[in-house]
């Protein structure tokens, strides 16, 4: 399929896509990372007894879970229900998502020979994604769907460590000790990630987000030298489609300028840096996304509203702003708090 130059017409004038393009909006658009998930009782009900990775391969289930927060919270965009390791599983990497642990890789990548685990991803490997997005865009109408993928560094960290890590000692040891192997690993992951995003865009996703969840573990120099080229390759690979590209990481205050430079149209900001300061670090020509601290949602309503006003005040001079949390929704969050938050942002920012 040829690359489109504009997103599907039904979603083109949505508040979310306008904010991503830094155009005037009727209200500040809102969506949440991990909005389709563990905080919703209806999610827990449909997922009961179904392992995480299996749930990502069932188009009807993916459609239902993706739609749940749109129905309940009236958010301005849906995010495709999946997991960052889905494309790795799809090409045959022996991994599983263990409850309470996260992704665990059977044979971690430590040597050049181990790279053989990473073959190219084809659309046929993830035909369920194409099918699910077809179902979703039919249901969503004018509400945009955000496709997503894990960034090469974060995927590499899981593959090299063999699972979640707080220190990334194996990944960093490879990055510093065998920079050629590291570069080849990230380059291969960039190709897999690009292919995965292309499938989502061609099926009808209106925007994409690259999650570099663990990039905050890096210094700016190491990020620029050892990680940014692979992320830039991903953004470049999908540029011709003309859909907004969002880049997000946790603890990336020192990297915000570089994350924009990698090719993002929208830079996601966690709660540690106020949005006006983030805009200064990122520079002109980019929209920002964020950045309410997810733990605020456990405080009383007045506290949530006061903090929300602070975020919006900090964002008032931005070229474009998509309201989000500074990280994902925590599983024990009261869903009604999220619904009220969406309504509050819409009310405060109605133009």
Structural account:
It is globular and about 55 Å long. It has 16 helices and nine strands. A hairpin with a 3-residue loop joins strand 2 and strand 3. It has helices at residues 9-12, 15-20, 41-47, 52-55, 59-73, 86-90, 127-140, 152-161, 169-177, 179-203, 220-226, 228-238, 256-261, 275-282, 301-314, 335-349, and strands at 78-79, 95-98, 102-105, 145-150, 207-211, 245-248, 266-268, 287-292, 321-325.
Write the layout of secondary structure elements.
Layout: H1 9-12, H2 15-20, H3 41-47, H4 52-55, H5 59-73, E1 78-79, H6 86-90, E2 95-98, E3 102-105, H7 127-140, E4 145-150, H8 152-161, H9 169-177, H10 179-203, E5 207-211, H11 220-226, H12 228-238, E6 245-248, H13 256-261, E7 266-268, H14 275-282, E8 287-292, H15 301-314, E9 321-325, H16 335-349
């Amino acid at each position: 399929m040829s690359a489109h130059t504009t997103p599907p017409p039904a979603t083109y004038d949505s508040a979310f896509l306008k904010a991503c393009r830094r155009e005037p909006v009727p209200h500040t658009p809102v969506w949440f990372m991990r909005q389709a998930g563990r905080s919703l009782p209806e999610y827990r009900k449909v997922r009961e007894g179904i392992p995480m990775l299996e749930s990502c391969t069932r188009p009807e289930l993916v459609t239902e879970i993706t739609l749940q927060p749109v129905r309940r919270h009236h958010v301005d965009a849906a995010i495709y229900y999946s997991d960052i390791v889905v494309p790795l599983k799809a090409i045959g990497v022996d991994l599983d998502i263990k409850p309470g642990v996260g992704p665990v890789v059977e044979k971690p990548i430590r040597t050049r020979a181990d790279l053989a685990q990473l073959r190219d991803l084809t659309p046929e490997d993830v035909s369920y994604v194409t099918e699910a997005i077809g179902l979703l865009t039919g249901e969503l109408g004018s509400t945009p769907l955000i496709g997503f993928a894990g960034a090469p560094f974060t995927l590499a960290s899981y593959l090299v460590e063999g699972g979640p890590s707080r220190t990334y000692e194996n990944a960093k040891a490879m990055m510093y000790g065998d920079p050629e192997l590291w570069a080849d690993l990230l380059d291969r992951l960039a190709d897999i990630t690009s292919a995965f995003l292309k499938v989502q865009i061609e099926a009808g996703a209106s925007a994409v987000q690259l999650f570099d969840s663990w990039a905050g573990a890096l210094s700016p120099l190491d990020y620029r030298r050892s990680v940014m080229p692979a992320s830039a390759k991903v953004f470049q690979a999908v540029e011709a489609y003309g859909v907004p590209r969002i880049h997000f990481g946790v603890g990336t205050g020192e990297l915000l300028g570089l994350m924009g430079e990698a090719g993002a149209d929208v830079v996601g900001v966690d709660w540690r840096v106020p949005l006006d300061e983030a805009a200064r670090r990122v520079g002109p020509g980019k929209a920002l996304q964020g950045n309410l601290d997810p733990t605020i949602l456990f405080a009383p309503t007045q506290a949530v509203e006061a903090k929300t006003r602070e975020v919006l005040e900090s964002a008032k001079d931005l070229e474009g702003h998509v309201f989000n949390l500074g990280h994902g929704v925590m599983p024990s969050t009261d869903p009604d708090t999220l619904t009220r938050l969406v309504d509050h942002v819409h009310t405060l920012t109605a133009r």
